[in-house]
Amino acid sequence: MSMPLSWWEYQDAYHNSELCIVGAGIVGLSTALFYAQQRPKAKIVVLESGNRPSGASLRNAGFACFGSVGEIADDLKHSSLEATIALIAARRQGLALLRKVQGDKALSFDACGGYELFFSEEKEAAEQALDLLPKLNQSLLEAGVFTKELYRIVRPSNLPQNSFKGLHLAIFHAEEAALNPVHLWQSLLHKCLSLGVRYQPGVALTALPEAEDGKGYLCSCSGVEFRTRRLVMATNAFAHYFLPNQVQPARAQVLVSAPLAMDLPRGTFHHHKGYNYFRFVEGRLLLGGGRHLNPQAEAKLEANTSEEIQHYLQTFAQEKLGIDGLQVAHRWSGFMGVGKAKMPKLEKDTEGRVWAVRLGGMGVALGTEIGQRAAALCLED
Ligand SMILES: Cc1cc2nc3c(=O)[nH]c(=O)nc-3n(C[C@H](O)[C@H](O)[C@H](O)COP(=O)(O)OP(=O)(O)OC[C@H]3O[C@@H](n4cnc5c(N)ncnc54)[C@H](O)[C@@H]3O)c2cc1C
Protein backbone atom coordinates (compact mmCIF):
# COMPACT_ATOMS: atom_id res chain seq x y z
CA MET A 1 0.00 0.00 0.00
CA SER A 2 1.45 3.40 -0.89
CA MET A 3 0.90 5.98 1.86
CA PRO A 4 0.21 9.61 1.02
CA LEU A 5 3.18 11.88 1.68
CA SER A 6 3.19 14.07 4.75
CA TRP A 7 3.12 17.82 4.17
CA TRP A 8 6.78 17.98 5.22
CA GLU A 9 7.79 15.33 2.71
CA TYR A 10 5.81 17.00 -0.06
CA GLN A 11 7.26 20.41 0.72
CA ASP A 12 10.78 19.07 0.81
CA ALA A 13 10.71 16.94 -2.32
CA TYR A 14 8.35 18.66 -4.73
CA HIS A 15 7.12 22.12 -3.76
CA ASN A 16 8.68 24.92 -5.80
CA SER A 17 10.58 22.54 -7.99
CA GLU A 18 12.79 24.20 -10.60
CA LEU A 19 13.66 21.10 -12.58
CA CYS A 20 11.99 17.71 -12.77
CA ILE A 21 13.92 14.93 -14.46
CA VAL A 22 12.01 11.79 -15.34
CA GLY A 23 14.23 8.67 -15.22
CA ALA A 24 17.16 8.01 -12.87
CA GLY A 25 19.53 6.19 -15.21
CA ILE A 26 22.96 7.53 -16.21
CA VAL A 27 21.39 10.27 -18.31
CA GLY A 28 18.82 11.46 -15.76
CA LEU A 29 21.30 11.59 -12.87
CA SER A 30 24.02 13.19 -15.02
CA THR A 31 21.54 15.90 -16.05
CA ALA A 32 20.73 16.49 -12.37
CA LEU A 33 24.41 16.63 -11.43
CA PHE A 34 25.43 19.17 -14.07
CA TYR A 35 22.36 21.33 -13.48
CA ALA A 36 22.93 21.30 -9.70
CA GLN A 37 26.55 22.32 -10.23
CA GLN A 38 25.39 25.35 -12.24
CA ARG A 39 22.40 26.19 -10.01
CA PRO A 40 23.27 25.10 -6.47
CA LYS A 41 20.11 26.62 -4.97
CA ALA A 42 17.64 25.08 -7.41
CA LYS A 43 15.28 22.36 -6.26
CA ILE A 44 15.81 19.41 -8.60
CA VAL A 45 13.67 16.32 -8.38
CA VAL A 46 14.51 13.06 -10.18
CA LEU A 47 11.56 10.68 -10.57
CA GLU A 48 12.20 6.98 -11.04
CA SER A 49 9.28 4.66 -11.69
CA GLY A 50 11.07 1.55 -10.38
CA ASN A 51 12.14 0.89 -6.81
CA ARG A 52 15.54 0.85 -8.47
CA PRO A 53 16.24 2.13 -11.98
CA SER A 54 14.67 -0.49 -14.18
CA GLY A 55 15.86 0.26 -17.70
CA ALA A 56 19.50 -0.20 -18.67
CA SER A 57 21.88 1.68 -16.37
CA LEU A 58 22.05 -0.98 -13.65
CA ARG A 59 21.52 -3.88 -16.02
CA ASN A 60 24.17 -3.35 -18.69
CA ALA A 61 27.35 -5.32 -19.32
CA GLY A 62 29.75 -2.55 -18.29
CA PHE A 63 31.60 -2.18 -21.58
CA ALA A 64 33.14 1.25 -22.01
CA CYS A 65 33.24 0.93 -25.78
CA PHE A 66 33.50 2.90 -29.02
CA GLY A 67 32.25 0.39 -31.57
CA SER A 68 34.05 -2.50 -33.20
CA VAL A 69 35.17 -2.44 -36.85
CA GLY A 70 32.55 -5.05 -37.83
CA GLU A 71 29.82 -3.03 -36.15
CA ILE A 72 31.02 0.16 -37.81
CA ALA A 73 31.12 -1.58 -41.22
CA ASP A 74 27.45 -2.42 -40.63
CA ASP A 75 26.65 1.16 -39.53
CA LEU A 76 28.19 2.46 -42.75
CA LYS A 77 25.46 0.69 -44.73
CA HIS A 78 23.00 3.22 -43.28
CA SER A 79 25.06 6.30 -42.47
CA SER A 80 27.95 8.33 -43.85
CA LEU A 81 31.57 7.99 -42.75
CA GLU A 82 31.42 11.54 -41.29
CA ALA A 83 28.38 10.71 -39.16
CA THR A 84 30.02 7.48 -38.00
CA ILE A 85 33.25 9.24 -37.06
CA ALA A 86 31.20 11.88 -35.20
CA LEU A 87 29.52 9.12 -33.19
CA ILE A 88 32.85 7.53 -32.26
CA ALA A 89 34.14 10.99 -31.28
CA ALA A 90 31.07 11.52 -29.08
CA ARG A 91 31.69 8.20 -27.34
CA ARG A 92 35.33 9.04 -26.72
CA GLN A 93 34.47 12.49 -25.39
CA GLY A 94 31.67 11.07 -23.23
CA LEU A 95 33.90 8.44 -21.72
CA ALA A 96 36.59 11.00 -20.94
CA LEU A 97 33.96 13.16 -19.21
CA LEU A 98 32.61 10.18 -17.25
CA ARG A 99 36.10 9.34 -15.98
CA LYS A 100 36.81 12.97 -15.12
CA VAL A 101 33.56 13.40 -13.19
CA GLN A 102 33.55 10.07 -11.33
CA GLY A 103 37.19 9.02 -11.20
CA ASP A 104 38.35 5.56 -12.26
CA LYS A 105 38.29 4.12 -8.74
CA ALA A 106 34.61 4.90 -8.20
CA LEU A 107 33.79 3.26 -11.54
CA SER A 108 35.99 0.18 -10.94
CA PHE A 109 37.38 1.16 -14.33
CA ASP A 110 39.62 -1.44 -15.97
CA ALA A 111 41.53 -0.20 -19.03
CA CYS A 112 41.77 -3.75 -20.35
CA GLY A 113 41.49 -3.14 -24.10
CA GLY A 114 38.97 -4.91 -26.30
CA TYR A 115 38.86 -7.46 -29.09
CA GLU A 116 36.50 -8.17 -31.93
CA LEU A 117 36.44 -11.82 -32.96
CA PHE A 118 35.70 -13.43 -36.33
CA PHE A 119 35.37 -17.21 -36.49
CA SER A 120 36.19 -19.42 -39.47
CA GLU A 121 32.69 -19.28 -40.98
CA GLU A 122 32.81 -15.46 -40.86
CA LYS A 123 35.61 -14.96 -43.36
CA GLU A 124 33.57 -12.62 -45.54
CA ALA A 125 32.76 -10.32 -42.62
CA ALA A 126 36.42 -10.50 -41.58
CA GLU A 127 37.49 -9.40 -45.08
CA GLN A 128 35.09 -6.44 -44.96
CA ALA A 129 36.49 -5.42 -41.58
CA LEU A 130 40.06 -5.74 -42.87
CA ASP A 131 39.19 -3.57 -45.89
CA LEU A 132 37.69 -0.89 -43.67
CA LEU A 133 40.29 -0.92 -40.89
CA PRO A 134 43.04 1.28 -42.47
CA LYS A 135 40.51 3.86 -43.72
CA LEU A 136 38.81 3.97 -40.35
CA ASN A 137 42.07 4.38 -38.44
CA GLN A 138 43.14 7.12 -40.83
CA SER A 139 39.81 8.98 -40.63
CA LEU A 140 39.90 8.89 -36.81
CA LEU A 141 43.44 10.27 -36.82
CA GLU A 142 42.57 13.00 -39.34
CA ALA A 143 39.49 14.00 -37.34
CA GLY A 144 41.70 14.21 -34.22
CA VAL A 145 39.56 11.68 -32.34
CA PHE A 146 42.61 9.54 -31.50
CA THR A 147 46.29 10.32 -31.72
CA LYS A 148 47.32 6.72 -32.37
CA GLU A 149 45.79 4.10 -34.64
CA LEU A 150 42.84 2.70 -32.69
CA TYR A 151 42.28 -0.68 -34.30
CA ARG A 152 44.97 -3.26 -34.96
CA ILE A 153 44.97 -6.83 -36.20
CA VAL A 154 46.01 -9.57 -33.79
CA ARG A 155 46.87 -13.09 -34.89
CA PRO A 156 44.51 -15.54 -33.18
CA SER A 157 47.57 -17.46 -31.90
CA ASN A 158 48.73 -14.28 -30.11
CA LEU A 159 45.53 -13.88 -28.12
CA PRO A 160 46.44 -14.66 -24.53
CA GLN A 161 44.91 -17.55 -22.54
CA ASN A 162 41.99 -18.29 -24.76
CA SER A 163 40.19 -21.51 -25.54
CA PHE A 164 38.28 -20.04 -28.49
CA LYS A 165 37.49 -22.55 -31.22
CA GLY A 166 37.94 -21.85 -34.94
CA LEU A 167 39.05 -18.26 -34.43
CA HIS A 168 39.98 -16.72 -37.79
CA LEU A 169 40.77 -13.07 -36.97
CA ALA A 170 40.88 -10.75 -33.97
CA ILE A 171 40.99 -6.95 -34.03
CA PHE A 172 42.28 -5.21 -30.91
CA HIS A 173 41.00 -1.79 -29.73
CA ALA A 174 43.48 -0.46 -27.21
CA GLU A 175 41.14 2.17 -25.77
CA GLU A 176 38.32 -0.14 -24.74
CA ALA A 177 37.65 -0.72 -21.07
CA ALA A 178 35.27 -2.31 -18.62
CA LEU A 179 33.61 -0.93 -15.50
CA ASN A 180 31.03 -1.83 -12.89
CA PRO A 181 27.66 -0.27 -13.87
CA VAL A 182 26.30 -0.34 -10.32
CA HIS A 183 29.40 1.41 -8.96
CA LEU A 184 29.01 4.03 -11.69
CA TRP A 185 25.35 4.63 -10.81
CA GLN A 186 25.92 4.67 -7.04
CA SER A 187 28.75 7.16 -7.37
CA LEU A 188 26.58 9.37 -9.57
CA LEU A 189 23.65 9.19 -7.15
CA HIS A 190 25.93 9.98 -4.22
CA LYS A 191 27.21 13.08 -5.99
CA CYS A 192 23.67 14.21 -6.83
CA LEU A 193 22.42 13.70 -3.26
CA SER A 194 25.40 15.58 -1.87
CA LEU A 195 24.29 18.57 -3.98
CA GLY A 196 20.75 18.38 -2.61
CA VAL A 197 19.06 16.64 -5.55
CA ARG A 198 15.78 14.94 -4.49
CA TYR A 199 15.74 11.34 -5.74
CA GLN A 200 12.24 9.80 -5.71
CA PRO A 201 12.17 6.07 -6.58
CA GLY A 202 8.82 4.34 -7.05
CA VAL A 203 7.27 7.46 -8.61
CA ALA A 204 6.19 7.27 -12.26
CA LEU A 205 5.17 10.19 -14.45
CA THR A 206 1.85 8.96 -15.82
CA ALA A 207 1.10 11.53 -18.52
CA LEU A 208 3.24 13.90 -20.53
CA PRO A 209 2.65 17.39 -19.09
CA GLU A 210 2.14 20.34 -21.41
CA ALA A 211 3.61 23.78 -20.79
CA GLU A 212 1.23 26.16 -19.02
CA ASP A 213 1.93 29.82 -19.79
CA GLY A 214 4.45 31.13 -17.26
CA LYS A 215 3.70 28.34 -14.81
CA GLY A 216 5.90 25.55 -16.08
CA TYR A 217 4.45 22.03 -16.08
CA LEU A 218 1.93 20.28 -13.87
CA CYS A 219 3.32 16.77 -13.28
CA SER A 220 0.94 13.98 -12.33
CA CYS A 221 2.73 11.01 -10.86
CA SER A 222 1.90 7.99 -8.76
CA GLY A 223 -0.14 9.71 -6.06
CA VAL A 224 1.64 13.09 -6.32
CA GLU A 225 0.93 16.27 -8.28
CA PHE A 226 3.36 19.16 -8.42
CA ARG A 227 4.56 21.99 -10.63
CA THR A 228 8.01 22.28 -12.08
CA ARG A 229 9.57 25.08 -14.09
CA ARG A 230 11.56 22.79 -16.35
CA LEU A 231 11.16 19.20 -17.44
CA VAL A 232 13.65 16.66 -18.81
CA MET A 233 12.54 13.28 -20.12
CA ALA A 234 15.42 10.82 -19.58
CA THR A 235 13.39 7.63 -19.92
CA ASN A 236 15.41 6.05 -22.75
CA ALA A 237 13.52 2.96 -24.05
CA PHE A 238 10.35 3.96 -22.16
CA ALA A 239 10.17 7.15 -24.25
CA HIS A 240 8.49 4.76 -26.69
CA TYR A 241 5.22 5.26 -24.76
CA PHE A 242 5.24 8.96 -25.66
CA LEU A 243 7.21 8.92 -28.95
CA PRO A 244 6.43 5.55 -30.56
CA ASN A 245 7.80 6.57 -33.96
CA GLN A 246 11.07 7.92 -32.67
CA VAL A 247 12.12 5.48 -29.97
CA GLN A 248 11.75 1.70 -30.03
CA PRO A 249 12.56 -0.60 -27.14
CA ALA A 250 15.16 -3.31 -27.69
CA ARG A 251 15.45 -5.89 -24.97
CA ALA A 252 18.96 -7.19 -24.32
CA GLN A 253 19.70 -10.43 -22.49
CA VAL A 254 22.73 -11.41 -20.46
CA LEU A 255 23.94 -14.48 -18.56
CA VAL A 256 26.66 -15.02 -16.01
CA SER A 257 28.20 -18.47 -15.54
CA ALA A 258 29.23 -20.27 -12.39
CA PRO A 259 32.97 -19.85 -11.61
CA LEU A 260 35.13 -21.37 -14.36
CA ALA A 261 38.09 -23.62 -13.67
CA MET A 262 40.30 -22.36 -16.51
CA ASP A 263 42.68 -19.52 -17.36
CA LEU A 264 40.66 -16.60 -18.67
CA PRO A 265 41.71 -13.81 -21.00
CA ARG A 266 41.49 -10.19 -19.90
CA GLY A 267 39.61 -7.73 -22.10
CA THR A 268 36.21 -7.00 -23.53
CA PHE A 269 35.12 -9.11 -26.49
CA HIS A 270 32.72 -8.34 -29.33
CA HIS A 271 31.36 -10.60 -32.03
CA HIS A 272 28.92 -10.43 -34.95
CA LYS A 273 28.64 -6.66 -35.59
CA GLY A 274 28.59 -5.97 -31.85
CA TYR A 275 25.47 -8.05 -31.25
CA ASN A 276 27.32 -10.53 -29.04
CA TYR A 277 29.62 -9.40 -26.27
CA PHE A 278 31.39 -11.04 -23.37
CA ARG A 279 34.07 -10.61 -20.75
CA PHE A 280 35.27 -12.48 -17.71
CA VAL A 281 34.31 -11.08 -14.31
CA GLU A 282 35.68 -12.56 -11.08
CA GLY A 283 36.39 -15.89 -12.74
CA ARG A 284 32.99 -16.11 -14.43
CA LEU A 285 31.82 -15.56 -18.00
CA LEU A 286 29.48 -12.59 -18.56
CA LEU A 287 27.89 -13.04 -21.98
CA GLY A 288 25.17 -11.03 -23.68
CA GLY A 289 23.64 -10.76 -27.11
CA GLY A 290 21.64 -12.83 -29.54
CA ARG A 291 19.13 -10.06 -30.17
CA HIS A 292 19.76 -10.33 -33.93
CA LEU A 293 18.13 -13.79 -33.88
CA ASN A 294 14.69 -12.34 -33.38
CA PRO A 295 14.72 -8.52 -33.26
CA GLN A 296 10.94 -8.27 -33.44
CA ALA A 297 10.41 -10.53 -30.46
CA GLU A 298 12.96 -8.49 -28.50
CA ALA A 299 11.33 -5.13 -29.34
CA LYS A 300 9.37 -5.14 -26.12
CA LEU A 301 9.39 -3.81 -22.58
CA GLU A 302 8.99 -7.15 -20.79
CA ALA A 303 11.67 -7.87 -18.25
CA ASN A 304 12.18 -11.58 -18.77
CA THR A 305 14.54 -13.73 -20.81
CA SER A 306 13.69 -16.01 -23.74
CA GLU A 307 14.62 -19.65 -24.09
CA GLU A 308 15.66 -19.10 -27.72
CA ILE A 309 18.27 -16.45 -26.92
CA GLN A 310 19.51 -18.02 -23.71
CA HIS A 311 20.02 -21.30 -25.57
CA TYR A 312 21.91 -19.44 -28.32
CA LEU A 313 24.20 -17.77 -25.75
CA GLN A 314 24.92 -21.07 -24.00
CA THR A 315 25.68 -22.78 -27.31
CA PHE A 316 27.96 -19.87 -28.30
CA ALA A 317 29.87 -20.22 -25.01
CA GLN A 318 30.36 -23.92 -25.50
CA GLU A 319 31.00 -24.08 -29.24
CA LYS A 320 32.96 -20.86 -29.83
CA LEU A 321 34.50 -19.98 -26.49
CA GLY A 322 35.34 -23.60 -25.69
CA ILE A 323 33.69 -23.58 -22.27
CA ASP A 324 32.58 -27.15 -21.72
CA GLY A 325 29.75 -27.95 -19.34
CA LEU A 326 28.78 -24.29 -18.90
CA GLN A 327 26.71 -23.76 -15.74
CA VAL A 328 24.58 -20.63 -15.77
CA ALA A 329 24.39 -18.91 -12.39
CA HIS A 330 22.35 -15.85 -13.32
CA ARG A 331 20.29 -14.46 -16.22
CA TRP A 332 18.64 -11.10 -16.74
CA SER A 333 17.45 -8.62 -19.33
CA GLY A 334 17.24 -4.84 -19.66
CA PHE A 335 15.96 -2.34 -22.19
CA MET A 336 17.79 -0.23 -24.72
CA GLY A 337 16.13 2.63 -26.54
CA VAL A 338 16.91 2.53 -30.27
CA GLY A 339 15.75 4.23 -33.46
CA LYS A 340 16.66 4.79 -37.09
CA ALA A 341 19.47 7.16 -36.09
CA LYS A 342 22.24 5.82 -33.88
CA MET A 343 22.79 9.21 -32.24
CA PRO A 344 20.67 9.74 -29.12
CA LYS A 345 17.68 12.05 -29.35
CA LEU A 346 18.64 15.21 -27.51
CA GLU A 347 16.38 18.17 -28.15
CA LYS A 348 13.91 20.64 -26.75
CA ASP A 349 10.41 20.13 -28.16
CA THR A 350 7.82 22.79 -28.99
CA GLU A 351 6.50 22.60 -25.41
CA GLY A 352 9.99 23.34 -24.05
CA ARG A 353 10.44 19.81 -22.67
CA VAL A 354 13.97 18.44 -23.08
CA TRP A 355 14.26 14.89 -24.42
CA ALA A 356 17.50 13.03 -23.67
CA VAL A 357 16.64 9.52 -24.76
CA ARG A 358 17.47 6.68 -27.22
CA LEU A 359 20.95 5.87 -25.93
CA GLY A 360 21.18 2.54 -27.81
CA GLY A 361 23.87 0.12 -26.69
CA MET A 362 26.43 2.82 -25.95
CA GLY A 363 25.00 4.70 -22.98
CA VAL A 364 28.00 4.00 -20.74
CA ALA A 365 30.17 6.06 -23.08
CA LEU A 366 27.55 8.59 -24.15
CA GLY A 367 25.34 9.03 -21.06
CA THR A 368 27.37 11.53 -19.02
CA GLU A 369 27.81 13.95 -21.88
CA ILE A 370 24.21 13.65 -23.00
CA GLY A 371 23.26 14.55 -19.41
CA GLN A 372 25.61 17.52 -19.47
CA ARG A 373 24.13 18.73 -22.74
CA ALA A 374 20.56 18.22 -21.49
CA ALA A 375 21.35 20.36 -18.45
CA ALA A 376 22.82 23.03 -20.74
CA LEU A 377 19.65 22.99 -22.90
CA CYS A 378 17.56 23.59 -19.76
CA LEU A 379 19.76 26.48 -18.71
CA GLU A 380 19.44 28.20 -22.11
CA ASP A 381 16.36 30.13 -21.02
C1 LIG B 1 21.56 -5.82 -21.09
C2 LIG B 1 22.18 -4.54 -21.52
C3 LIG B 1 23.55 -4.48 -21.73
C4 LIG B 1 24.14 -3.27 -22.11
N1 LIG B 1 25.49 -3.19 -22.18
C5 LIG B 1 26.08 -2.01 -22.42
C6 LIG B 1 27.47 -1.88 -22.38
O1 LIG B 1 28.18 -2.84 -22.09
N2 LIG B 1 28.02 -0.66 -22.68
C7 LIG B 1 27.25 0.41 -22.98
O2 LIG B 1 27.77 1.49 -23.26
N3 LIG B 1 25.91 0.33 -22.97
C8 LIG B 1 25.31 -0.84 -22.68
N4 LIG B 1 23.96 -0.92 -22.65
C9 LIG B 1 23.19 0.31 -22.89
C10 LIG B 1 23.28 1.28 -21.70
O3 LIG B 1 23.09 0.58 -20.49
C11 LIG B 1 22.22 2.36 -21.88
O4 LIG B 1 22.45 3.03 -23.10
C12 LIG B 1 22.23 3.41 -20.76
O5 LIG B 1 22.21 2.80 -19.49
C13 LIG B 1 21.03 4.32 -20.94
O6 LIG B 1 20.91 5.15 -19.82
P1 LIG B 1 19.62 6.06 -19.66
O7 LIG B 1 19.80 6.84 -18.43
O8 LIG B 1 19.36 6.78 -20.93
O9 LIG B 1 18.42 5.04 -19.57
P2 LIG B 1 17.94 3.99 -18.41
O10 LIG B 1 19.07 3.52 -17.60
O11 LIG B 1 17.10 2.98 -19.11
O12 LIG B 1 17.06 4.92 -17.50
C14 LIG B 1 15.74 5.32 -17.81
C15 LIG B 1 14.96 5.25 -16.51
O13 LIG B 1 13.68 5.88 -16.68
C16 LIG B 1 12.78 5.22 -15.82
N5 LIG B 1 11.43 5.56 -16.30
C17 LIG B 1 10.87 5.19 -17.46
N6 LIG B 1 9.63 5.71 -17.58
C18 LIG B 1 9.41 6.45 -16.46
C19 LIG B 1 8.31 7.25 -16.00
N7 LIG B 1 7.20 7.39 -16.73
N8 LIG B 1 8.41 7.86 -14.79
C20 LIG B 1 9.55 7.73 -14.04
N9 LIG B 1 10.62 6.99 -14.44
C21 LIG B 1 10.56 6.35 -15.64
C22 LIG B 1 13.15 3.75 -15.99
O14 LIG B 1 12.68 2.96 -14.92
C23 LIG B 1 14.67 3.82 -16.07
O15 LIG B 1 15.29 3.56 -14.82
C24 LIG B 1 23.34 -2.11 -22.32
C25 LIG B 1 21.96 -2.18 -22.14
C26 LIG B 1 21.37 -3.38 -21.73
C27 LIG B 1 19.89 -3.44 -21.54
What spatial form do the alpha-carbon principal axes imply?
A: globular
Helical segment count: 9
Q: What order do the helices and strands follow?
A: HEHEEHHHEHEEEHEEEEEEEEHEEEH
Number of domains: 2
Q: Which ligands accompany this protein?
A: flavin-adenine dinucleotide
Relative helix content: 25-40%
User: Can you tell me the CATH superfamily of the largest domain?
Assistant: FAD/NAD(P)-binding domain
Could you give a short account of the major beta sheet? Answer: 8 strands, mixed
- Compute the CA-based radius of gyration: 21 Å
If you had to describe this structure to a student in words, what would you say it looks like?
The chain is α/β, with parallel strands linked by helices. It folds into two domains: 7-58 and 182-245 and 341-379, 3-Layer(bba) Sandwich (FAD/NAD(P)-binding domain); 112-174 and 247-338, D-Amino Acid Oxidase, subunit A, domain 2 (D-Amino Acid Oxidase, Chain A, domain 2, 2-Layer Sandwich). Helix content is 31%, strand content 26%. The protein has helices spanning 7-13, 26-38, 69-75, 81-102, 104-107, 123-142, 181-194, 307-319, 363-379, and strands at residues 17-22, 44-48, 63-64, 114-119, 151-154, 167-173, 177-178, 198-201, 211-212, 216-221, 224-233, 248-257, 268-271, 276-281, 284-288, 328-338, 345-348, 354-357. Strands 1, 2, 8, 9, 10, 11, 17 and 18 form an eight-stranded mixed beta sheet that branches. Strand 9 (211-212) and strand 10 (216-221) form a beta hairpin. The radius of gyration is 21 Å and the shape is globular. The mean pLDDT is 96. It binds flavin-adenine dinucleotide (FAD). Residues 22-28, 47-50, 53-57, 59-63, 65, 204-205, 234-238, 252, 254, 288, 334-336, 359-365, 367 line the site of flavin-adenine dinucleotide (FAD).
